[in-house]
Amino acid sequence: MALTLNDYLIVSTILFIIGLLGVTRRKNLIMLFFATEIMLNAVNIALVAISKFHNDLTGQMFAFFIIAIAASEVAVGLGLLILWYKKYNTINLDSLVSMKG
């Protein structure tokens, strides 16, 4: 039994919904980064599946760019997270309300 395009799109949709729920429900910044990565990977799965279905490499090229952007987002985000933790000893999103200039 071969997997069809619908199978890949269903998996991609489920992963995207899981990531979206993680973004909306989490108070921890590390979990927020993980949920964002799940959403980006869900988009990558959809792009690659559609690209393969149409025998076109454009979707796969976009997926590589998304992976590169996600890696830079994690690098910058974790750097900022480390600085925030050193200053306030917490990575809770509620502590971001107390930011002062």
Concise account of the structure shown:
This protein has 101 residues and is mainly alpha-helical.
List the helices and strands and how they pair.
Layout: H1 5-25, H2 29-53, H3 58-88
Helix pairs in contact: 1-2, 2-3
Question: In CATH's first tier, which class applies?
Answer: Mainly Alpha
Tell me the helix content: over 70%
Please report the total strand number as a whole number: 0
* Named CATH architecture: Orthogonal Bundle
Morphology call: elongated
Q: Kindly report the average pLDDT value.
A: 89
Number of separate structural domains: 1
Describe the 3D structure:
It is a single chain. This protein has helices at residues 5-25, 29-53, 58-88. With 101 residues, it is an all-alpha fold. It has one domain: Helix Hairpins. The radius of gyration is 17 Å and the shape is elongated.
Which characteristics define this entry?
101 residues, Helix Hairpins, 76% helix
